[in-house]
Amino acid sequence: MQGQMMNRPLLISGLLEYAEQVYPNSEIVSRQVEGGIHRYTYTDAGKRCRQLANALTKLGVEQGDRIGTLAWNTNRHYELYMGVSGMGAITHTVNPRLFPEQISYIINHAEDRLLFVDLTFVPLLEPLADQLTTLQGIVVMTDRAHMPESSLEGLLCYEELLDAESDDYDWPTFSEESAAALCYTSGTTGNPKGVLYSHRSTILHAQAICQPQAINISCDSTILPVVPMFHVCAWGSPYAATLTGAKMVFPGPQMDGPSLHELIETEKVTLALGVPTIWMGLLAYMDEIGKTLDSVESVVVGGAAAPVSMIQKFQETHDIFLIHAWGMTETSPLGTISSCSREMKSMPLAERYPLQQKQGRPIYGVSLKIVDDDGVELARDGVAFGRLLITGPWVAESYFREDHPENFIDGWFDTGDVATIDPQGYMQIVDRRKDVIKSGGEWISSIELENAALGHPAVAESCVIGVAHKKWDERPILLIVKKLGEAISQDDMIEFLTGKVAKWWLPDAVVFVDELPHTATGKLLKMTLREEYQSYLLDR
Amino acid sequence: MQGQMMNRPLLISGLLEYAEQVYPNSEIVSRQVEGGIHRYTYTDAGKRCRQLANALTKLGVEQGDRIGTLAWNTNRHYELYMGVSGMGAITHTVNPRLFPEQISYIINHAEDRLLFVDLTFVPLLEPLADQLTTLQGIVVMTDRAHMPESSLEGLLCYEELLDAESDDYDWPTFSEESAAALCYTSGTTGNPKGVLYSHRSTILHAQAICQPQAINISCDSTILPVVPMFHVCAWGSPYAATLTGAKMVFPGPQMDGPSLHELIETEKVTLALGVPTIWMGLLAYMDEIGKTLDSVESVVVGGAAAPVSMIQKFQETHDIFLIHAWGMTETSPLGTISSCSREMKSMPLAERYPLQQKQGRPIYGVSLKIVDDDGVELARDGVAFGRLLITGPWVAESYFREDHPENFIDGWFDTGDVATIDPQGYMQIVDRRKDVIKSGGEWISSIELENAALGHPAVAESCVIGVAHKKWDERPILLIVKKLGEAISQDDMIEFLTGKVAKWWLPDAVVFVDELPHTATGKLLKMTLREEYQSYLLDR
User: Fold this and answer.
1) CATH code that applies to domain A7-18+34-218+231-247
2) What pTM, to 2 d.p., does this model score?
C-alpha cells in the first residue's frame, strides 16, 4: 500500500526557491577574480540564475547536457551550480589543478557541451582547445571590460549573456534521480573517474550535513567554503547554505592566510571548510600577526587527516572546534564526522584530542562496515581493522561511463581505505589499503607514523612507506622533508617517535629528502616512492 | 540522464539500524502504565522490535496491513512504531480521547487487523468490541502478571508474544513511498479523516525537524515528547530521536505537573514537546513549588497558538526558549517554526516576543502561500491575509479512502487557516477560515481577541465568535469562563482590551458562561456557539 503524501521531487531549484522566499536578504559575498568584493542577496542570485537558465536555453542546452566549469569559488560559480542543475543540465566541475592531459581527458570523457572558465584559467585552456572536441562554446566568467586577449576563438562573455536575458524562468520539474552534477576523482592511479550526483543525493546530503550532529548549519551561519567548488562540490556546502538561507562567503582565487583572515574578520565568518594545508597557511599567518579568529566557531577539516597539532592549535589559540570529517568524491563526500557534541566539549582536552583525531561517526543515511579480505565483517571494537565499506543514498553506485565492478560489491562501495570502528561508532582511518605496511603478519599504519613525525617542529613533510625486509617481509621507512634551516638526525627522529607509537612500529630507517612526489592535487605518490626505495633495507 | 548514486530507499527500519549501530547505548526511558520507570538502550529496543516483527509475522500480519494502537507514550508504543512500520505494515495510532463512536468508526474505516491497547484503555474498548468487525486480535500492552480481567475474549499479552520470539529478523526492503503510519484528524466537523504517511515523508520530515533552525535535535538531546504518540506521531519526535541517537523520555500516562517535573529533573530533559494546556499545568506546578526547570533548553509548543504570557513565563522564570510551531495532521506536522535563532536570541525581549508569537518560518521542503478567495496569491508583507496553502514532500495529497478534492488544489493543500506572511518569511495564523469575523468588509481575528482576553488574570477560558449585526453584517462577541472565585464585569473586560487590539475589534458584548463546548480533543466547538448566539446582538 502506498502512502498518500505529495509526490514532490527533491530538486536543486527548490533549494534556491526556498532561500529566495524565506531568507531573501541573506547575503552571498564573493572575492572576485577581477579583484574587489561582490555582494548580493539570495533574491539577486535567484534572478541571475534564472537569467543564466534563459541564456543556456538560447545556447541550445538541454536536460542532461554536461556543462563544464573551470572556476574558483565565486558567486558566478554558485550561479552555475544552481542555474545549470536547476534547468536539468549537469554541472561538471573540472579541477584546474589536474595535469593538462587529465583536464582534456575529463572534458572529452564527459562530453561537455559548454565550458565556463574563470579569467585565471584561460591561459591553461589555450593549448588544450584543439583537443576539446565536444565543446560548442567557451564562456569567460567576467564582464565585457575584463574579457581577455586570447588565442581561443569566439569566447563568450558571462555578464553579456546574462544581461541579454529576462529573469523570468520557471524551473522545470523532473525526477529527483536525474543527474545534477559531475565530479571526477583525482586518484593516484589511472584516469580520473566520474561520479554522477543526482538531485536526490545532493539534497539528502545537504540535509544531512546541516544536522547539529554533523556540521550544524543554519540561517545563523556565515559559511566560508575554502574547499574548492571543483572538489566534491565544496563538500556540498553551497547546497547546504541555500537549504538553510545561511550567509555564504566565497574566497575567489585567494586562499592565502592574509586574504582568508581579512574575509573572516570583515564578514564575521562562523564556519569555514577546507583541507589541512589551507589551515596551516592561515594558522601560521595568525601566529605571525598575533591575532585570533574571533567570529569562527568551528572549522571543518577533510580531504586528509587533521594532525593533532592542528586540532590543538585551533582549540587552544583560537577557541575553535575542529570538526574532523572523512569522505570521498564517491560519497558526496560526507561519510563520517567528529562533531562538536556536548560529550566531546565536556571532555578534558587530553581525552578529547585522541577522539577528535578519529574521523568520527556516520550521520543517518550512511552505513559503514569493515571486512577482512574474504568479505567477512569485523568487530566494532576499535581494534580490529579491515577494508572500509560504505553505503547510503549519497554514495555512488557506479562510475560515469566506466566499469569498475571491483569497487561496488553487493550494494557497498569499497573505499580503498583500511579502518577501525569503535563501540561508540567512531571510525578511524588506519591507512589507504595499498599503503598499509604488513610487517610479520601485523599491520602498521603509514598515516599514523607520518602524523607522529609531523609533530616534530623541524619536519615540513613526512612520508612512510613499506619496503622489502628479509625477516619481516615489509618494514616501514620514514622519508622527511626538513623545514628550511632546521637540523635533525635519524637518531633524533627515532627518539622523538619512541613512546608515541608502538615500539615495533618505529621505522627501520629515516631518510632526509629535498622533496616528495605528488599528484596534481597534492596527494603523495607513494607508489613511485615504493618503487624507488624497494630494496633500501636489503641493500644496507 | 539519471544520476549514478545508490538507490537506497528511506525506510523507518533504517533509522533503528542507525541508532543501534552508532548510538547503541543511548537510552529510552519510559514511565510505565503499570507504574515505575522502564529504562533500556537502542540496542535493547532494536532486539524487541525484531521480536515484535517475528510475532506479527506469526499472527499473519502482512505488508500494508493496518495495526491499530490505543496507547500512551511508552517504550512499547515506540516498539510498535518501529516494528510495525519496519516490517512494512502500517502503524495506525488511534486517539483514545475521541468519542467512542469515532474510535469504532476509525478502526473500521482503517480496517485494522490487530489492535494493541494499553491497560488504561481496555475498559473503553469493552463496549465497542462488537462493532469492531475487522479486528482479528487484541493485544494488551503489558506482561502476564498485569493482564486484566475483561469481557473481551481471547486477549493476547504483549510481553508473552515477544518472549516467544527470536530477535533475529531481517527488515525487508521496499519502496519508500510505501505507507508507514496512519493518523486520523480530529476535525470539528464530520467524520475524522485519515492521513496516510509514507516512509519517505516520515523520514524527510524527521530530517527536517532535527535541523538547527527547526527543533535542533542531536545525539546531545534528551527529548521528552509529551505530545501524544496518537497525535500526529508525537510530531515525528520518536523518528527524529532515532535518526540522531538522542535519548528519549516517555511520560506514559502521567502528564500532570508533578510527574512531568520529576521526569524532567531525574532524566535531565533538554527538549520537551507539547500543547499549551500541558505547559499551563507544569508552569503552575513549578510556581507552586517555587522551582525552575534547569536542564530544559527549549520547549516546542504546537497544536494551538502559544499565548505570549507562556512565552514570557518560560523565558523569564525558567530561561527556556519557547519554540512556537505550526502544523496539522495533514502536514506531518511541521509547517512553520519560530526557532531559537541567533537573531531571535539577540533581540530585546520586548521586540522578540511579538515575533515569537508568530508561527514562524517554513523549513526547507515546505512551501507556503496565501491566496484570496479567487486563488490569487497575496503579498508577503505581513499585512495582507488570506487562505493559507501549503505543499511539500510531507504534506498529504489526499485523505485515506475519502474524496475531499476541495482541500487539495493544484498540488497545494488548503489548510483551512487564514494567515499573513511577512517579508522575513514569518507566517502568522490569523484564524481558522470559518472562525474569522467579517465586520463591514474587514476581517477580525477571533484567535487574537481570545489571546488578548486570556491575558486577564480572572479569565480561565475565552472564546470569540462572529454573530449577525444589522449594520456591519457580523460583529465579535466574547464568551468568558471566569476562574474560580474571580469577579469581572463586561466593562472591566472592554477596558482591559482597549489598547491591546484595534478599537473597531473590541467585542460588542462580553458574555460570562459556566463552560464552553469542546470536541473530544479539546478544541472549541465554535459552530455550536455560533448557532446558539446567532441573534444575540439582534435581540438586544
Assistant:
1) 3.40.50.12780
2) 0.94
